[in-house]
Specification:
CATH class: Mainly Alpha
Structural class: mainly alpha
Largest sheet: 2 strands, parallel
Shape: globular
CATH superfamily: Di-copper center containing domain from catechol oxidase
Strand order of the largest sheet: 1-2
Strand content: under 5%
Number of strands: 2
CATH topology: di-copper center containing domain from catechol oxidase
Distance between the termini: 14 Å
Helix content: 25-40%
Radius of gyration: 18 Å
Order of helices and strands: EHHHHHHHHE
CATH architecture: Orthogonal Bundle
Number of helices: 8
Amino acid sequence: MAYVRRDARTLTAAEKRRFVKALLELKRRGEYDEFVRTHIQYFPSDGERGLRSAHMAPSFLPWHRRFLLELERALRRVDSSVTVPYWDWTRDRTPTSVPWTADLLGGDGRRSDRQVTTGPFAYREGHWTIKVGVTDEPFLTRDLGRSRHPIDLPTKSELEWALKDPVYDVAPWDSTVTRGFRNKLEGWGTGRGGTSWRNHNRVHRWVGGEMLGGASVNDPVFWLHHAFIDLQWQRWQRRHRGARYLPATPPGRDDEQYDRVVARHQRLPPWDVTPDELEDVGRIYRYG
């Protein structure tokens, strides 16, 4: 029977406690830091050679879907009642709204060094030391809304702009494409400043701190954000019946993207699964 991922704003106090407790237990065991390492490993940009599976590529959505499932399975081994909630950033848009509460993820970082000092993931609580990252800071950091150069979270209309595109992705299957649902949702834009970050990418920028790079998994909001992104893929599929993951077949040897993107029936590293097998997960979970 499929379990339910729920909007974080609807969680009961007990559900929040169980979710947080399970995350902290994975951290205590050392399992959580392995998720951080995996994301860093599969974070190469399309300016680099080699296969791109997690970002700047069509497999952005199935890769993170499987990544979420791996985390969720780990959480449910700790507590079988736990599922990953999602953060609807088109609705909860301020630094004091869900999920930035003391009983869930804690709040913004302090002005001096952006260190998060509230909630269960605050360094002073002693349970969430950053051990795998791109800086030497042992504490979680955030800069909600970017205090020095403020930006807003994406709006419902900006999300709709992505959802209404009937094509999943287009060549050259990277961060430069201006058509296709995948990149409109992932959010690599043109120009400079806030206009160059859309939807998914803009949210990472808005949160700031740990969420800015490959080690973004260090902030638990990563999972709530990507659960909402995953929900958008489901919504897009329902709207555009019959539309499939693209490319259906691998780019040819004379193509610049040869061996650099994952086609529909190719293995999605680091797992033995294909995008085709991840298009329908309705028997595993649904969104409430």
